[in-house]
Amino acid sequence: MVFQTKSEKKYALVEANIKNFQYYNAKYGQEYGDSVLKNVFQILQEFVEGRGYVSHTYADNFHFFIEYTETDDPNQSQHILSSFLLELMKKLFFNPDPILHKNIFLSFGIILPSSLHGSFEHLINKLGVIRKSCPQIRSRVNSFEIYNEENYNNYIRKLDLAKRLTEARINDEFEIYVQPKVNINTNKIIGGEVLLRWSNSNGIPLYEYLSLLVEYEEIYLVDLNNFRKTCQYIKEGLEQNNPRVPLSFNITNVALLQQNSHREYLAILEEVGLPPRIH
Fold this sequence. Notes:
It is built from nine helices and eight strands. The chain is an alpha/beta fold.
């Protein structure tokens, strides 16, 4: 399905979502929350009148078509703002409702006329994905993101990789790799730093999968398991009278932010039978 032809007016399709809408229900009750939805819908309805169509689709999500002419300017974001979006943001932000006045923020996903292909349901799915991919989605500001195929495909690839990383953690595919520390005067190894490696990465670079492990907090469980492997490695050396060089093990900020996470590391030391201090 194509939503316009060359002889017709061109429309952009926009998804609008009220940020932290649950706050209004929680603080002021559901009746007031319903009035917020009606308030926003009315503003949108008046805004697109004569140049588009709007629907309160579900929950705190709204969708509307609005006349829009694309430009060759690579800075399409600025053109969208000046064409309609900035004006709409102001009408919503300077709301006549005293509770909402300067205290309501929305996120927007936008599909330009040239990308309006496919079923409406598929377009709605794309809008939701692209809107939530905006870096400012959680900030108390109005935010928006414009759909393009590359960003959409990157989102799919990112979630595919996240799925693979969970499977890799469950299948114990993350290994420890010791990077030696060398005394430049004696040229002897005096220590090592324990690093993370994925044995079945199939060429995916470390920076890519490591950043996802941190983002989705998988790194916490991966680190605990690799700390256990490190302790077992040291313990084997002691039992075989083949002491290891001192090793450093990095703990991510994800672990540091976990309450009592240090106890889990101490429990692993006890489980492996490695004394906290080795002379």
